[in-house]
Predict the 3D structure of the following.
Amino acid sequence: MYLSELTGWSDSADVLRGMRVVVTGGAGFVGSHVVTRLLLTGARVKVVDNLSTGRLDNLDDARRIGLSERDLVVADIRGPGGTAVITRWRPDVVVHLAAQTSVAVAVRAPAPDADANICGTVNVLDATVSAGAGLVVYAASSAVYGRVPAAGLPVGEDAPVAPIHPHGISKATGLRYLDWYREHHGLAYTALMLGNVYGPRQTGLHCGVVARMAGALLRGERAVVAGDGRQTRDFVYVGDVAHAVALACVTGGAGMVNIGTGRETSVIEAYHLIAATVGADRPARHDPPVTGEIRRMALDPARAGARLGWQPTVDLAEGVALVVADGRRRLARERLAPIR
Ligand SMILES: NC(=O)c1ccc[n+]([C@@H]2O[C@H](COP(=O)([O-])OP(=O)(O)OC[C@H]3O[C@@H](n4cnc5c(N)ncnc54)[C@H](O)[C@@H]3O)[C@@H](O)[C@H]2O)c1
């Protein structure tokens, strides 16, 4: 049931047949969907993850379709243990998703964010070059565009890279390193500039706003909205993101490519949609706004269409329904768990 929700893509089955792909951060939210997607399209996959925010049970679907224990390396990309699988196994493609992903955490502590996202990325790129892999697919973020003027939305890839917080800075630095490795080592890259990714399995203290609001409402609590809730995001469904990664693996270096819907949705609009889907009528609790938060964002996906043949297929209402169904299943499992 769960797997089938994620994989309505039978038309592209087998296009990655035999391709060897290392996925860093593969036990995370996005990574686990990517791993499933790559396996279903015929790739051989190895996962590197230090499980700092990732979870082994995120890979249950992947295990059901062939990921073995040997294919999972629990290690940190900042050290040799985390990159050895790249240099030894010599994949065709490295999909680099491992990162410190929280803006709030990066604002409080920029150094660990930079350590994981800059030093970790450089380590992965070094190993990719040593292994002779032809392509790296990198998860960048809309945060690298910073504050885009209203007239510039939806933002295209030619807009200035102008991050305004430490997490945007570390992700943008990754882009500069990709340029350097391409120029000096001939390493092709596709950097997916991801919007606000949401979908089943997104959990944890610092997870995305859709998952946080849905989780609170499903537990019978009030959802928290930062500030007036009129800040906008480009919400993109995780299955669509996984499909973009699979397409990137077979396309070759496409450079920077936005992965979003082109639509701005305010957080408060998303809240109302989630509340209606859950059937909750509690008003949201408004907390103070997050300092330095980007006010408006939407990504122009035209280049993704032209270069990858990608377009979003799941709209927010459909995606939220999948998130709520997943949340209900998780809650039911928690409530059925034996008391120790
Ligand atoms: N979710 C979003 O809305 C979003 C938006 C833009 C970009 N991204 C990017 O997509 C990627 C995946 O994000 P996610 O939402 O799945 O987050 P996530 O936290 O679920 O996944 C990150 C994974 O990387 C692993 N990891 C972190 N540091 C590591 C290290 N030093 N060594 C090895 N593994 C490490 C974590 O354990 C986790 O499994 C990240 O690069 C993130 O910046 C996500």
